[in-house]
Amino acid sequence: MNVDWDNFRTIWLKKGDQKTVQIIDQRSLPHQFVIEDITTVDQMAVAIRDMHLRGAGLIGAAGGYGMYLAIIEDPDSAVKAAAKLNATRPTARPLFAATERQLAALEGLQSATERRSAALDVAELIANEDADHCRLIGEHGAQLIKELSEKKGGETVNIATHCNAGPLAFVANGTATSPGIQAHRDGIRVHFLVDETRPRNQGASLTAWELDSMGIPHHVIVDGASGHTMQTGQVDIVMVGADRVARNGDFANKIGTYMKFVAAADSHVPAFCNFPSSTVDWSIPTGAAIPIEERNPDEVRYIQGLARDGRPTDVLLTPQGSPAKNWAFDVTPARLVTGLVTERGVCKASEDALRGMFPEKASPSRRVSTR
Amino acid sequence: MNVDWDNFRTIWLKKGDQKTVQIIDQRSLPHQFVIEDITTVDQMAVAIRDMHLRGAGLIGAAGGYGMYLAIIEDPDSAVKAAAKLNATRPTARPLFAATERQLAALEGLQSATERRSAALDVAELIANEDADHCRLIGEHGAQLIKELSEKKGGETVNIATHCNAGPLAFVANGTATSPGIQAHRDGIRVHFLVDETRPRNQGASLTAWELDSMGIPHHVIVDGASGHTMQTGQVDIVMVGADRVARNGDFANKIGTYMKFVAAADSHVPAFCNFPSSTVDWSIPTGAAIPIEERNPDEVRYIQGLARDGRPTDVLLTPQGSPAKNWAFDVTPARLVTGLVTERGVCKASEDALRGMFPEKASPSRRVSTR
User: Hey, CA dihedral for B101, B107, B112, B117, is it positive or negative?
Assistant: First the structure.
């Protein structure tokens, strides 16, 4: 597959058709590149819930476009549509931020034309901001990688990541792998260790696909091997994304991230969490308040891949009688995090550092009172 | 499948045929129960290397029976056969212990009949000892679980395990799950959290199969979810097996064990490593000296399961162009281990404690000099 990475987007308005949103159906990757047309908010809700698209930033943008499609269908359906979209997946913060933002923008607008136009503007704004913030995260994070490269005298910098928080998880550019990709483009020698990320294997199928198609050196490993690579000096830096960040720097990310950060701390490997500010939930003091989505256990019991005959096939891995549990995320405490990389730069994982980085968002009540 | 767990063995001499060893071909589990006839040392070497059978204790017993088959074929082939068997897999200590023991027993025996008879005796002795030691590990470890049960007022004790170190990994009884199975038989309420254990999924396919067919409550989880379960108070005790133990208590076990023990320590969950003394390599001071087997990367890139049409099928999980790395084991440092459970009882993970438990093995040079 030839992908135009310079102009890559994961969600966009169909050319010549303002009533259709197009997405990449990520369920077919890495083996097929399928584009799906979405024309109703119901279709968008299914696409989010059943993970045709996924990733914190992309879910947010899909929420924005979903609201726009709802307004086209029925100009007065905004509140119902927001509730429908919010109910699809419970953990990622950008989804709720997007629907809130749409509701605020639509407030007071009466005519269908005005409402439609405003909803489109906000949807495009959310998408563009996401792509732009991810680009900036790439630039700030690349500095960390360049410093490691200099320390190693130009030797390859080994970057470990978990799940997919690359371009596919956002509107473009990504967060976890954005710095490494930027460093690679700037001529720094990098190599990624890609956790396959069970149960849905977004690392093996999506991150590996991105890196493979960009020609960036990488190896896929099982999630359990991540500790071994850090313990044996094969990792210089860990970079992951986040689905929701509490204001103290605790963060929820794909199941398995907590163990990766504990092992990184034990092995003295610096470990960063990269995210745009839309991921921060300023209303919650610690990660304990983040709801953890539990998904269908069959996502653990079955796995999909490509059979030798070239057909996508899912296979049963467990005895028929064995039940499974399937938490989609876990929470990594700030104490295990070396630093946070946002669109504004790098900071410590603490409430003070986050407030310092985003003073206007940190304390909305104070902001209002000083106006 | 109805399994007679009271008389269960994973390797045995065929009834009425002293020249054939039978094993369970574990590659077909959990979906089929296949018994394989092994009549030559070459077949046994293939069965070990290609993992028709696996697990530290069972590999040891297979080494013992493999030597016996070699002696039947050619009474003078012992040294060559030992080298062949030792070359199959590099990490598990009991394999080398078994071939060494056979060579020592055969030394000085001249007649083919004598050699054959001695080799059979040693093979049966190794197998019986393994089954017996695992039974004792179950009894000692069950005490720990009973104490937890009492502390919880009879509430279910949640036991987390990794990979398969149950009956299938040994001649019988197993190590990691032996205490929990014993406690269950003694009427204690237990529940297992079974890591699926990528890449070969011995947890999802073998441990789950054992527990399912014994009717013991369990859930399969992805390896990355193990930290989340411990962090959120859903685990009372971790018990795993070992493939090789250094004399300071560091141990090699299935890839992913190190991360599990780091997360257990971080979450204040007691974590034990259970093994018979044949697993201890008294010649190495720390785990750093344990060779870590690297296997075919296609074990990561492909996975086998049962397709919807009921046929065993392997499917590709990664892009065709993405390479993988596949370490079979990692090393858990003794500092992360709450205790060791052996056939003689429970002790700390330290050289002093291990020497105290096995004084006759700890210092062979001193033992000889005092005779």
Answer: negative
Low-confidence ranges of chain A (pLDDT < 50): 365-371
- Using the beta-carbon criterion (under 8 Å), do A258 and B205 form an inter-chain contact? no
A292 vs B contacts (CB less than 8 Å)? 228
How far is CA A107 from each of CA A65, A75, A76, A176, B295, rounded to the nearest angstrom?
Answer: 17, 12, 11, 35, 60
Cβ within 8 Å, pair B262-A258: no
Q: Which pLDDT belongs to residue B2?
A: 80
Residues A69-101 have pLDDT tens digits of 999 999 999 999 999 999 999 998 999 999 999
What CA–CA distance (Å, rounded) separates A218 from A216?
A: 6
> Three-class SS of residue B331?
strand
Angle at CA of residue B169, ends B166 and B171, nearest 5°: 100
B5-129 and B139-361 have identical folds: no
The mean pLDDT value for B333-344 works out to 98
Contact list in B for residue A313 (CB cut-off 8 A) is 307-308, 313, 315
Q: Rounded to an integer, what distance in angstroms lies between the CA atom of residue A170 and that of residue A137?
A: 12
Contact check, Cβ <8 Å, A318/B223: no
Contact list in A for residue B221 (CB cut-off 8 A) is 300, 324-326
Contact B307 A303 (CB under 8 A): no
Residue pointed to by tokens 């897999």: B89
Amino acid at A53: L
Test A205 with B266 for CB contact under 8 angstroms: no
- Looking at A130, A195, A236, A243, which residue is catalytic? A243
- Nearest of B153, B75, B81, B74 to residue B111 by alpha carbon: B75
With beta carbons less than 8 A apart as the criterion, state whether A189 and A182 touch.
no
Handedness of CA B97, B98, B100, B105 (dihedral sign): positive
pLDDT tens for each residue of B207-259:
999 999 999 999 999 999 999 999 999 999 999 999 999 999 999 999 999 99
Domain spans, chain B: 5-129, 139-361
Which chain A residue is nearest to residue B230, measuring alpha carbons? Answer: A259
- Domain B139-361 CATH assignment equals 3.40.980.10: no
Measure CB to CB from residue B30 to each of A194, A225, A319 and give the nearest one.
A319
Nearest Cα neighbor of A165 from A26, A24, A54, A13 is: A54
Strands A190-195 and A157-161: parallel
Q: Return d(Cα B290, Cα B247) in angstroms, integer.
A: 11
Q: Domain B5-129 is of which CATH architecture?
A: Up-down Bundle (1.20)
Query: C-alpha dihedral over B69, B74, B75, B81, to 10 degrees?
Result: -60
Q: What is the ipTM of this complex?
A: 0.93
pLDDT score, position B363:
60
A306·B314 Cβ contact <8 A:
no
Predicted confidence at residue B361, as pLDDT, reads: 82
Note the pLDDT of residue A176. Answer: 98
B260 touches chain A (CB under 8 A): yes
Task: Say if CB B230 and CB B270 are below 8 A apart.
Answer: no
Nearest Cα residue to B341 out of B269, B266, B270, B282: B270
User: Which of B240, B316, B326, B335 to mutate to probe the A interface, most A CBs <10 Å?
Assistant: B316
Any idea what DSSP says for residue A320? T
